[in-house]
Design a protein that fits this description.
It is a single chain. By secondary structure, the protein is mainly alpha-helical. It is built from 17 helices and no strands. The protein is globular, with a radius of gyration of 24 Å. It starts with a helix and ends in an 8-residue tail after the last helix.
């Protein structure tokens, strides 16, 4: 059968696939050509072809830019805190939800935990700015408990920003992060738990010996995606919560690129930074995949 006849025979499937393929080509592959901007001195009056080549000059500037390295420090600090806290808690929460026997209460807990995910950072950021202000909800609670005597604006304290970013991101995404784990646990054979109970295994033992090992591939996949995105801290969150007082702690790589490219118009330098970070992220992806491959008896969860 010729390719054309096969295409006609699979017409309905082709109609489903090709819009996605075209979308990816237009918005994911064609823009790759713009990478050459990193090796040129491009300004708003230039075209891609007319801008003069500068070779590795933009990358040499990165090495000596203290503000870039400050953004790297903030990005790594926030991302590692999110990895340490935000990666484990969704697993714990999903296990707790899965063990609930009252289905009505289980649905209520799931719904409440999912809701923040559907709000934009503009909405949640506005709430946080209000709550963390001098007379905000958070300070009112602390003063009522006698922990502090006078309220302060916590978003103006730069040394508190990392924890504010981590905990607010956890609040927004922890419920949504349980979906994959709950789906995986729903496919576990219940007879395994019954056999474990007959043998006298406690709930903790059942989770440790049955649930977590069978969730291994999903946990590994999430770990790979999380580690590969360590340098891609949340831009929306940063732009909403960052101010002139906490910028030294809040400015991350994405906001640095945004500021250099769109605010200051240094498109070549911003592209060079973005390209360098993308290369490092791919390296982290490969390293994490190799590690998880060894933990899963040589099987990769990506391919």
């Amino acid at each position: 059968m010729s390719i054309f006849k096969r295409f006609i025979k699979q017409g309905q499937l082709q109609l489903m696939v090709w819009p996605g393929v075209i979308f990816m080509v237009i918005f994911n592959f064609i823009p790759i050509y713009g990478i050459i901007t990193a090796f040129k001195h491009y300004t708003i009056v230039d075209t891609m072809s007319s801008a003069p080549w500068v070779g590795m000059e933009n990358f040499k500037t990165i090495v000596s830019d203290q503000f870039f390295w400050q953004s790297v420090r903030n990005t790594l600090a926030i991302s590692f805190l999110k990895l340490a806290i935000g990666f484990v808690i969704p697993i714990v929460l999903s296990v707790m939800i899965f063990e609930l026997k009252n289905m009505r209460f289980k649905k209520i807990v799931q719904t409440i935990s999912y809701i923040p995910h559907f709000f934009s950072w503009i909405v949640l950021g506005g709430m946080l700015i209000s709550w963390l202000s001098t007379n905000g909800f958070f300070n009112q609670i602390l003063m009522a408990l006698g922990i502090i005597d006078k309220g302060t604006n916590h978003l103006l304290a730069g040394n508190q920003y990392w924890w504010i970013a981590v905990l607010s991101d956890l609040w927004k995404e922890v419920g949504w992060g349980t979906i994959l784990y709950l789906a995986g646990m729903s496919r576990i054979d219940p007879t395994l738990y019954e056999a474990a109970r007959i043998d006298g295994a406690s709930k903790v033992t059942q989770v440790r010996t049955i649930t977590l090992p069978l969730l291994g591939p999903i946990i590994s996949l999430n770990l790979i995606l999380t580690v590969s995105g360590l340098l891609g801290s949340n831009l929306d969150q940063t732009l909403v919560l960052m101010n002139s007082q906490n910028q030294d702690y809040a400015d991350v790589i994405n906001s640095f690129v945004y500021r250099m490219g769109l605010t200051q118009g240094d498109f070549s330098y911003a592209t060079a930074v973005g390209l360098g970070i993308s290369v490092v992220s791919v390296i982290l992806l490969i390293i994490t995949d190799r590690i998880t491959r060894k933990l899963n008896d040589g099987h990769s969860v990506i391919v």
